[in-house]
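INTERNAL AUDIT FORM
Audit reference: QA-55
Scope: verify that the stored structure record matches its stored sequence.
Auditor: D.O.
Record contents follow.
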Amino acid sequence: MKKILIVILFVLPSFIWAQKADQMIGVTALQFARGGSIIASPVDAPCMIYNPAAIGVLKFDKIEFDMGFGVINPPRKITRAINTPMEKTTESGANAYLGMGNGVIVRISKNLTIGMAAGGVSGLGTDFPATTLLDNPSTPFPENVSIVTKKGLLKITPTIAYSINENFVVGISLQIGNQSLALKSPAFILPQSERWGFGGSVGLIFKASSLLQLGLSYISEMKIAEYEFNGTSLLPPAGGDGIYKMEMNSPQQIAFGISFTPNNQLLIESDVKWINQSAVMEKIELTSPSGYVIPLSFGWEDQMVYSLGTEFVPHKGLKLLAGWSYGATPIGEEDVNNNLGSIAVVEHHISLGIQKAWNKNLLSTISYTRGLHNEVTSNTTPANKIEAEFNMFYFELNYRL
């Protein structure tokens, strides 16, 4: 039974992908171009997903519409049993995804602003061929089958912000989530299922001086309803066909940012964010139709994410943006063999963007983000390796009245 559980742990986590473990650092071209540094000086309406006070400080008169989408290319690899005759590197076949982030905000009065945003904040998937793992004849199922998985979380955030005075804005959001999960692995076939979840966020932005602005936000853990998959399994204690149950929530986060604007042409912001990954991804229990509980010990640790973003205006109507972010992977060397197939290992990101104002109402932005290659090798036997990198191209339109 121990060997069976080890195999399950190897293949199950392969549905996780995103920029900081399974959390995106942004949802629009402007947010990515700034490296996710948007807590103190927000750039668009969908910033309310990360700090609800954002909509109270954006510069518009009556209403603002922001629409963004992008293409994500994340090459990922698994190398089994490195430095042995069985060593083999396999690439995921799913390497193109669509991302999005949209929002609208309305100025009700001088002090009151309302808005709503929607964006894909985590997810994607993998598609590894049958040659990824070797078959183990001592287990009751073949390991040499394809591993096809998917995860996605869309957040919708109705938001209210109130300006206490010209220097201090507070905001609150209801966070509504729709999360989908699917898994095809040697041990299980769990078809795609969607569940709704709910959480909340609060935030503030304070203009300390003409040069400095501070931002602080808290996002609660989103409680996702328990999944009930009409699945099947070849694992004897699991009970074959039937309803498989599992819970997977979205982690709570705390973010702080400080922006510096020395003149009308330059802005620099630095953010730090704590993501409570251990509360939702340290261990998950999968319950079979027979009631047998399979512990999935991923061992994810909490993350500290650091980001730096800048904007430069060379002349009126044109803005150049750049950003960098870093967050150590939550997967340690001791947990690689419990996360084979997981591609939550990219740590450094570099971004560039350019914004053009076509008139006083319409702006457009394009950005490119590069997730630098990173790999983690197990320090236990067998010594397996997971590695990933990615490219993202995003486009955004902003219309303000």
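Auditor finding: record pair retrieved intact. The radius of gyration is 22 Å.
Action required: none
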